[in-house]
Q: What sequence folds into this?
């Protein structure tokens, strides 16, 4: 762990700044325990014009970040998404506005052909500011799929926050 020796609260404070201001520093994202592939997710396109306050399995309050590949599909409504498309829902604590959880979806060829080949993941943020968790196996993602299947027409993504 490269950040050993850095007081946890400093990491947490910096993480909060990065999230709030959206500074493009992917190396810092990596230091937060995020997988390289989305260490800079907070610089991606935000799909929701307003904060996503919809009641669902995902608690309030939320922002949804989508990578370039996913953004092309969303803009053109040309479903299904292309290989590698990644969507990340970032959940904040309503009291502190600190990020607590990331819910992730990535299109991965051959991963789960019955359910649109989406890989699902959850990352929880620890008190140190670093994230733990990651991608789930197809077997463990049954709960996610069970709900997202009702958005099958838009390739398992709800996108209900797009025009709000
Ligand atoms: C009870 C239903 C339900 C379950 C279970 C569920 N989701 Fe969702 N999910 C939704 C709804 C509804 C939305 C859109 C509204 C919102 O933002 O809450 C959404 C949105 C998302 C998005 C943004 C892309 C989109 O679909 O618009 C991601 C990423 C996501 N969920 C990941 C997950 C993961 C990972 C799991 C499993 C750990 C999961 N979801 C479980 C209902 C669910």
A:
């Amino acid at each position: 762990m490269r950040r050993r020796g850095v007081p946890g609260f400093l990491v947490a404070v910096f993480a909060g700044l990065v999230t709030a201001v959206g500074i493009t520093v992917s190396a810092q994202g990596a230091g937060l325990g995020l997988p390289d592939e989305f260490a800079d997710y907070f610089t991606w396109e935000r799909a929701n014009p307003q904060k996503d306050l919809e009641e669902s399995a995902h608690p309030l309050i939320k922002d949804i970040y989508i990578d370039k590949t996913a953004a092309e599909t969303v803009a053109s409504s040309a479903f299904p998404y292309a290989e590698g498309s990644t969507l990340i829902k970032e959940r904040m604590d309503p009291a502190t506005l600190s990020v607590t959880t990331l819910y992730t979806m990535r299109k991965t060829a051959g991963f789960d052909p019955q359910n649109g080949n989406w890989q699902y993941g959850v990352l929880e943020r620890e008190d140190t500011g670093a994230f733990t968790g990651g991608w789930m196996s197809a077997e463990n993602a049954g709960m996610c799929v069970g709900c997202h299947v009702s958005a099958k027409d838009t390739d398992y993504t709800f996108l209900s926050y797009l025009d709000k």
Observations:
- The pocket of heme C is lined by residues 52, 54, 56-58, 62, 64, 87, 89, 103-105, 120-122, 143-144, 147-148, 151, 157-161 (CB under 6 Å).
- Residues 63 and 90 are 5 Å apart (CA to CA).
